[in-house]
Amino acid sequence: MSVATPSFIVAIPARYGSTRLPAKPLRAIAGVPMVVRVAQRALDAGAAQVVVAVDDQRIADALQGQGVDVCMTRSDHASGSDRLAECAEHYGWVDDAIVVNLQGDEPFAPAAGIREVARALAEDDAPMATLATPITEAHELFDPNVVKLVRSATGRALYFSRAPAPWARDAFALDRHVLPPNVPFLRHIGIYAYRAGFLKRYTTLERTPLEQAESLEQLRVLEHGFPIAARLTPEPFPPGIDTEADLERAERWLAAR
Questions:
Q1: DSSP E strands: which ranges in 197-246?
Q2: 3-state class of 138 per DSSP?
Q3: Angle in degrees, CA 74, 53, 107, rounded to 5
Q4: N vs C: which end of the chain shows fewer Cβ within 10 Å?
């Protein structure tokens, strides 16, 4: 049975350095810095607290007056999860607190999706939750930049992969350009909810072979034996912003609305 949306925190890792898009958090979309747009999506979702984990004063300055907390973190963190774990320690979040990790390059993340990943964690005893959406085109399934999620009948993640998964053996032996019906092909959406206690524990886990092979951090959780609840998103997540071309697309998307 579905429960009301629980109280949750949204934590947004925002690193200044980016190989493909320098100063990414401060890049403007229709005149508004990307990190400000992401923070606004978290506020719109009804988070009890919104924290932006930054590593540069320029990002902190851009967030002044936006109604969010800014946590200055170390610049040498290996991942966004490590950055958020530092925030959890800084704020002393209780172990049962629900923390949603909203990526700093998701300026159009739907508020309903942010609430849904928090609800997924509240309704499951897994320490972590995430979202997915159906794949409807064959080119998506075969694209290694699209992360696929295979989940169990009970709604938990079985595996994440950059390879096509599951493999429809008989159908793909005949044609790989059309997706066969009645096969649950899912694209993973990179939004997570954690119990704060698990967030702190996760960053102490050793990196694992599958994680390193696929370059997918969430596999570390599965390889160490922890379950991940996986729900379908109630609304589409527009693509995140990684390149100059993505910025241009975002500008066109906003102009058309």
A1: 228-232
A2: helix
A3: 140
A4: N
